[in-house]
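TICKET: design request
STATUS: open
ATTACHED STRUCTURE:
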């Protein structure tokens, strides 16, 4: 079985590295992006099985990433938000944008992997 390709987008290098290590250890192929603009460029030129996306980033937010991809008619893979934004309106916006899961930072390794697996199975 081919391992699934996941794009992780987060502007915090330490968080990005920790998630990357966690997912690679679990057998996933991982690509990282440190900004929304970088993520849009990667998604326009490559395909991924899942998008793990932070919301609060300088420049383009995670919500804006999804809106930009839609405007440009780019296929959006299954989406999991991983963010410190935990207001009810943020969670609702994530759902409206099609998120399979909305995880609040910090999260556990188990919750992260379970949410990714569930999103990949949809």
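STATUS: resolved
RESOLUTION: sequence designed for all positions
ATTACHED SEQUENCE:
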């Amino acid at each position: 079985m081919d391992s699934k390709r996941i794009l992780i987008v987060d502007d915090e290098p330490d968080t990005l590295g920790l998630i990357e290590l966690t997912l690679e250890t679990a057998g996933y192929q991982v690509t990282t992006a440190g900004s929304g603009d970088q993520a849009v460029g990667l998604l326009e030129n490559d395909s991924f099985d899942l998008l793990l996306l932070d919301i609060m980033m300088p420049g383009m937010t995670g919500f804006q990433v999804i809106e930009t991809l839609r405007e440009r008619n780019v296929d959006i893979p299954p989406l999991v938000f991983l963010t410190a934004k935990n207001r009810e309106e943020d969670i609702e916006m994530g759902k409206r944008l099609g998120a399979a899961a909305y995880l609040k930072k910090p999260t556990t390794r188990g919750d992260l992997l379970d949410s990714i697996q569930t999103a990949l199975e949809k």
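CLOSING REMARK: The first helix runs from residue 13 to 25. The beta strands are 5-9, 29-33, 50-53, 79-83, 99-104.
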